Amino acid sequence: MLTWPLPLYLRTRLLGDPAGDLGVYVWNVWIFRHELIRHAHLPFSTDHVFGATGAVDFSLHNYAPVAGALAAPLIGALGVVAAFNVVMLLAITLAGLSTFLLARQLGLGHSASWWAGALFMASPVLTARETAHFSLVLAAPLPLFLWAVLRCLDFRRIRDAGLVGAIAALAAYSDAYYGIYCGVMGAVVVSWRVLRLRWPADPAPWPLATRAATLTVSALGLVVGLRLIIGPAAIVLGPVKVGLHSLYTPLLLLVAAGALRMWLPRRPRVELHDPGARFRPLLRLGLLSVATCLVLLSPQIVGIAMRFASDRLPDTPVFWRSSPRGLDLLAYVVPNPNHAWFGERTRPWFMPPEPDAFPEFVSAFPLAAVALVVVAAWHRLLPPLWTAFTGLFVWLSLGPFVYVAGVNTNIIGPWALLRYVPVIGMARSPARFAVVAALGISLLAAFAMTALRERYRRGGTWLAVAALVAATFELMPAPRHLYAAAVPDIYRLVSAADTRDEAGRLLELPTGIRDGTSSLGNFSALSSFFQTSHRRPMVGGYLSRVSTWRKVENMRMPMLGALTRLSQGASLSSEDAERAKDARDAFLARSCTRFVLVNRRRASAELHEFARRALRLTPVAQDPDYALYAPVDPPPCAPASAPRRLTDMSWLWQGAE
Q1: Could you give the count of Cα atoms lying within 13 Å of 457 in the half-sphere of its Cβ?
Q2: Is residue 636 helix, strand or coil?
Q3: What pLDDT digit, counting tens, does each position of 160-194 carry?
Q4: Is the Cβ–Cβ distance between 30 and 155 less than 8 Å?
Q5: Euclidean distance between CA atoms 234 and 252, whole angstroms
Q6: Are 316 and 545 in contact (CB under 8 A)?
Q7: CA 90, 91, 92: angle at the middle one, nearest 5?
Q8: I want to staple 120 with a disulfide (CB 3.0 to 4.6 A). Which of 15, 99, 487, 550 is the partner?
């Protein structure tokens, strides 16, 4: 129902455009099986992209190997697209079932637990991601992780601790962010169990510090008020001139001073609460969980370590004010932007002015469920742990600075500091914390339904039924807009061509290197999607993170550098053109290019003509959209670079080849 009519077109349609991120996720499940079965390698690297610079590992790519493992046995019988769609349906279902299991662990009844699972699996946060960010739809490990943590805290068994580590690894293999989220969620739940805020009955008075903090808050509040009233200006106090061109610094100081003023009168302390002497056994179980997780994640950890040793880690500096923004606070109460009737109208509400804002900044939750939570909170019927849990992740999803109705208030949130914490800071997009927030709100809605039914008896039952009907109407996205998953016929010639070298690569023009933060040239995700059909290695590529070394190495080659510059619309000097022509044979040997496919709609006439003449191409086939060529008398391919055995980690089981 949530994906209708996709089940009628499993082999030929997708929920998202294959020219976008979803096309890369389809490629992910294909390359997993291709490397594992066709090449007998551990499927954590490939040489089927970036053909001129050697193999690349997936340690920093949003690879979702869990989806690849689920799709691998299905691809042979169903095909790549149908297998991907079946895994999508399975992921949605498991998200609901695992939330149901967590709710049951928390003591909720069957109907309330079903309500929690249904709300989470149908939440607009996940529905929007089904069109592009498929790895975030693999959200089942998040409630499963909480379920396992609660069991470990309650029963303190070794098998539960091992299960916690295994599910955390499963989450990281679903989406790298989810592995980090498990660490944060576990820290919140465990801290709630073993730590307490101690409020001294009679704290020693600090009148001078308290008065100074009060005076500071008042002065900064006056400065902010003046800035809001008079606009950008400057305050002159004798020889001192203070500019008020931005609210950033005054509000930052105001928040810090306000927090200090609230802390000073009571000065609470965080203390270990361990009346049953359970902390030490729990610490040992926690270490076992961490060890289990690290062992299971060793393929990724080895890949990252080898990147670090060879100085090939992507450079993603974290800045104070220019980091990715978070959600708008009001985005949580936007009517479902995925709805077939009114979604087009509500979709742009409180969205940042960015071309890919949808689905990254969708965080809506059904208003009926939110109303239940608000009513229950008003009557103090919600459990404090899950209220604090949900509030924290809502706050984290707002990013380093809080936006309200599209306005940056310059008020900092916890993410402003947490993004500097090692490992946690790798979750660069704070808006994705909305997935965990949606899980928390789903649980709170289930607690609210149970509490209100018990409080109001018959009236509470009717209230729950009304909320269920309203939420069902608001959450239903069907009929979904589907996208064609067709592959142009000309790619069949590429896959069927008889060449002596099976490793002969395909160079598509425009070409380049694209990753999640930058683009060199003009590579399209469609090329990755089409590779699932023709299966030939490519010269360009798209991964979530690409090292600076690889980008520099591509541009250092005269021919590939010239083609990349022309692909992105830059001009080419006569000297660079001559150097590229002279390096023709060296490039063909190193890249093993045996086919050149020009997309006539995307490639400029200058790029098309330069490639035809500089690479000395002969026509093979053409249609209104594409022109397929082959190089005349190409030199033999250079031997594959030796480091691939280390890069793809097949050295761990070389006997399998």
Answers
A1: 0
A2: coil
A3: 999 999 999 999 999 999 999 999 999 999 999 88
A4: no
A5: 18
A6: yes
A7: 90
A8: 99
